Amino acid sequence: MAPQEASDGRFAVLPVRMIGSEAYPVETVHEIRIRPNKPRFPTANDGRTLYLKNIPVDSTEAHFRELFATLLGGQRQFESIAFENEAQTVLAVDPARATMIQGFAKKRKRGDVEAEERREEVAAQLPEIWTRRLQNSGSTATVLLVEEASVARVLKKIDRIHSGKGAQPIWGQGVDDKDVSPLSTPWIATHLRLSRADKLETKNSVHAFFSVFNRKEKEANELAKRLRNEPDEDGFVTVTKGSRNAPASRNEADEARAKMLQKEAKKREELKRFYRFQLREERKREQANLLKGFAAAQEKVAAMKEKRGKFMPES
Amino acid sequence: MESSSKRRKLNNAGSGLKHQNLIDFQSPDATRLSSSSIFTLQTDELLKNAKVDYDKALRGVDAQLHQLKTIIESAEPHEPIPITQATATFEKTHRITIPYPEPRPAKDAPYKLAFAKPAQCNVVGSYVFRTMTRHQARHCVDMVVQMPRSLFQDKDFQDMRYFYRRAYYIAVLAAQIREESGMSVEFEFLHDNRLLPVLLLHPMAEGQDQDGASATRKKAKAKAKDYAIRIVPCAPEDLFPASKLTPASACNRQADSDDAKSPTPFYNSTIKAESTYISYLRVLTRAKNECAGFVDACVLGRIWLQQRGFGSAIAQGGFGHFEWSLMVALLMQSGGRNGQGSLSTSLSAMELFKAAIQFLSDTDFNGAGPVVLGKAVGGGARDAGPAMLDPKTSLNILHKATPWSTALLRRYAKTTTELLADDAADKFAPIFIVKANVLAELYDAVFEINSADITKSASSDDGGGAVWANSHDIYKVLSKAYGPRAELVHIQQPAAKPWSLASKGSRPQPTLVVGVVFNGPQMAVQLEKGPPAEDARDAARFRQFWGDKAELRRFQDGSILECVDWSARHALGICEEMTRYVLARHVKLFEAEIAFYGDDFVGSIVDFAHTDKAAFDAVRRAFLAFESDVRNLDDLPLSIRQIAPVSPLARYTSITPPLIGAHTGRLAPVDVNLFFEHSTKWPENLVAIQEAKIEFLLDMDRRLTTAHDNMTTHLGRDNRDLGDENLAYLDVVYDSGAAFRVRIYCDLEGIILDQQVKSKHLDAYIRNAADDALARFRWQFHILPLHTTALATACTRLPALSPAVRLVKQWFARHKLASHFPDELIELLVLHVFLHAYPWATPSSGTTGFLRTLDFLARWDWRDEPLIIDTAGDMATDERVGIAKDLAVWRNRDPNMNHLTLFVATSSDHSGEAYTRAGPSRLIASRMTMLAKAASKLIKAEDYRVDPVDLFDTNLRDYDVLFHLSPKAIREVNQAAQRFSSSGATSSRFKNLDGATGQQPLPVRAAPVAVLMEELQRVYEGTLVFFHGATAAGAEDEDDTIIGAIWNPKLKRTKFRAGLPYNFHAVDDDEGEVEVNKQAVLCEIARIGGALFKKIEEVEEEEDEQD
């Protein structure tokens, strides 16, 4: 297995040794693919970021902190890691109209107000029911290192491992049990316990959620109202949902619609067998249907014939 | 003028008199036509297939028959010699044992035997009429040889004398044919009738005449097996007057020494039938000439009978092709008004067949008076058994049939009539293709009586032999014992085998197979109530029948009744106990001579108890109590529309019955949906709705716990992140042990999701996600409540459904398919088998229901056939056609069946995808079919002797990887999950120190293994397919301690891409290529499971490695 050049954006292969366990006493090599991160939308940190593909499913930050410590010879080079399926911290609540309207007008807020709101949103999260999340098999992560030079050092180190000068790192070696909550039985047991949610805590978070939600809804409404009244810089007034009058209730709208449909159906029904040509056409249609039905039956029998044994009484 | 004529026509059209020459498609008749046209086409195809190619299969028969005729006619006649002398000389010279019927003629018998040239030789039967089918067990050409009248005396009908003469005659023919023709000759009983030995010839085809190249001889040998010729001696017409042979005459005094007067109907009918061959040949020929469809109707009849195990032989019920065609012919020639036939000769084959089936289903051959095909002549006594009289010959055509075989025949005819009238069902396969006489699928209880006694002596012998007489006795005793408990008791008599000329006739096998069809729940009634004690005569009879078992009991209503109490608990056990008791008491058959089968289904596979129904009923009662508790809550913010249970526990279908209050260490909450009245107060946002639901649950919780102090509540979280779907539920646990898990329905949720699905502004992936969410929402809140109601109703209406569903679920679980098949889907499969039980009647026990479900699964071609289950019974033919078309569209769009493999539509869901949207995948469905086919084959091969354990035994070598779970670790997780929090009550090894002991267990979201499986499936979706037996609902983890898995067969070696969704490694030899890193994956799983796994085992299989 030849080492792969990483500098041109191709992946380098980092072999990680996996020590077997009691149930599966096999030692094997897991391959993580690494390359310098090149996102579609560049950010300031790209130079010191590594993109990882095919990380183990039980990856945690502690695991990678140790892994990079062995690669770089020290913990301090490693800053953070972001996993692909990590839960979004931003609360995805948008009152009915907020999304649509937010596109039109950027709102500016004072920093402290914003911070306060962020805190509220975090409080609105329901209590976590997993102590540790598994990564999907073959998923990705981005590792942020302290300095840009480390990236090159990592890739160089991988080269050395391939040429046999360095030892393959061992997965999970040196990880402190305190940093990582365990998998296996305690993991499932704790999950099941957490699934029986604490009522008070849940209640608080639900209340927090609704205060955020109501605030956002209010903001959205106000924004809509403002947009309705104020022409923008080109002099246009944005048409938004919800007029000055209260919206008709959904019930009434449904009823009216049903009534209309009924009326239409009645009208159609009345004109159905009215003209002679309609009768004639109907008759023709029926005849055609009959023929079609027969042809379909024949086809079905032919299809059955092709499958063997359909016409053979079982014995 | 012209305009007025137009006006008139229009008016006519309006008043419904329109176009009479055309078929009206709106009428139900028209739709029936389209479904019947396919049946007719299929039948035509079947007939085409079934016809024997006589030139090929029976080549040279005509020449051989001619040759035989000459040989027979060349036999040398001789003058009468005394019987003893004739026998001795003949047996000595020819080394042939004359096949005299038992008892053989006495040494001092005074009469003489002679031989003379036959009056005529004639070929009769299906060869002449060309009604043989390719699927017959053997092709037999019958040639009757009419013995001349001169051989007989007037009183020969008495005392077996006719049969002795006949036996001598056939022996002489045998000697002659053996010498002259070079065919192999054997004796055989005609239709197992021990009075009628006939000759069975196996012609050696032409191969032998040519001097012997071995190849041709081999060919000839193979050919020789194809058909046989039977030489059947018969009596001249009207040899004996009919008045001497009425069913009441006693003609066989010799056999019946103690009571000379007892009538011998079987003996009489046999003699009568001997002189009818030629006249019936005429009747059939006339029918064939008069009616074009007659021959085909006979072929259809033959196939129908054959698939149900019927034949002319006594062992096959005594109603075969000959009886069928004779019945149809006689119905065509007589029986109607003014001497006309009751069937028109212009009917087509299909119509004749239907008419015959209708006749069989409407006629009770065991009724008080005999059934007469035509005009009844004279009164006269009736046969003891079934009777269908031909008035011309006054012969009982059913003389070989038994009361039980005709009862079974009628049952089959009834189900077939029902099927023919059922628009919804596929008619062709159940009527002609499916083999119906698999005893295990037909009867609820099957047992063998194996005793040499039944072949030896009988209390009364009317000529049919000891087995015949004993079977009748056993039948009488059993049907009296079962009474209304059994719908049908059937006894299969052993078939007689051919035997060689030199040996004495074969003794019949001493084995009777008895099948019983239960009458629903009646068989499980433990206390048999007899007549009241005051009714002295009946009480005495009851005591006489039941012997010591009978006892007097006083009941709550003051009545004092004779009773019999059975100690067994379930239907099969009671049946066995009763059978053993009455057979020992009345027929002297004891323990070892009776062998019951199928017990294991009840015992070891699923733990059935007689209290199961009560346990399920208790859940339903507890639910009603819960419902009233919730409904009685004061001023809830919204009013409650409906509270619906959605759990198998509430519809009689969980494998283990719910045990409320029993300390199993685990709660099984009943899932319940709570529907509020429509309200405009819900927020118009999916996430907010979910949060609002939690608020509602907490609010309800507060009110419930304030109002009632006999319950504890827990708020539970579904395993989902905050999003569009349901987040939480409320567990309500009563002190009694009943537990309910409440989820709230919000109608707005469905509307918003629906809008998202239909919205054109949203991105495709959002719409797809919304579509999935909507499907899950509908499943939980629309389909499940309806399904639960439908199944609960069906289970009360069909008592065998619940045990059958539980057996089938267990089958899926044992084969580790349960995690892929939702409970509800399995329930529907079984329900389908119950609603469309054809060719049988609705199953009346769990075992038959289970076996027939396997049979159905083996047969179901899910690629082309939708499964339509009309739970409400209101589906129109158009709708069915529409559903079938939908399936065709699906298959066209997705020929590889990546999405919807099984297409299951019900009355509440015509789309066909509600039950199977989330799986099983094609791989799993194929595995199900494969397993069902193997099981079905085993059942066909071993029938009632099949060991249930074999059906439930799964082959672990089929998987790539086996994860052996540690039951100890699972128990630990369970215990740990029960605790309030990690710092709460301490657990201890010792039960008395454990804080949790004695308290009610806490509800958990799901079983630990289910949680593990959920996570593994999510993480390794696309890499591994996992198989495990425990479903999410109700099943115990300890039942199945092995998770099987196979590597996704689609994962091939491929070029590296950054988007590969699985754990891969580079393959050594080729740089750019990667494949699944199996060992690393297993290592990961080992780390995830930790102590939960005892061992992870890779199954070595060469072929799979290469794939």
From TrEMBL, chain A:
InterPro entries under this entry? RRM_Rrp7, RRP7, RRP7_C
Xref: Pfam families: RRM_Rrp7, RRP7
> Mind telling me which GO cellular component terms the entry cites?
CURI complex; UTP-C complex
One GO biological-process annotation of the entry reads: ribosomal small subunit assembly
Residue ranges that the Swiss-Prot or TrEMBL entry lists as coiled coil: none
Q: Which domain of life is it from?
A: Eukaryota
Where in the numbering of this chain does the Ribosomal RNA-processing protein 7 C-terminal domain appear?
195-313
Record domain Rrp7 RRM-like N-terminal: where: 11-164
Which family does the record claim for this protein? Belongs to the RRP7 family.
Q: What is this protein called?
A: Ribosomal RNA-processing protein 7
TrEMBL record, chain B:
Q: Name one GO biological process term.
A: rRNA processing
The record's section on Pfam families has:
Nrap, Nrap_D2, Nrap_D3, Nrap_D4, Nrap_D5, Nrap_D6
Localization, per the record, is: Nucleus, Nucleolus
- Nrap protein domain residues are 141-289, 294-435, 443-588, 610-796, 799-952, 956-1096
Similarity comment: Belongs to the NRAP family.
Quote one Gene Ontology molecular function term. RNA binding
Is the rRNA processing keyword given for this protein? Answer: yes
| Entry keyword RNA-binding | yes
Q: Name one GO cellular component term.
A: UTP-C complex
Q: Which UniProt keywords apply?
A: Nucleus, Ribonucleoprotein, Ribosome biogenesis, RNA-binding, rRNA processing
Put simply, this protein is called U3 small nucleolar RNA-associated protein 22
Q: What is its main location?
A: nucleus
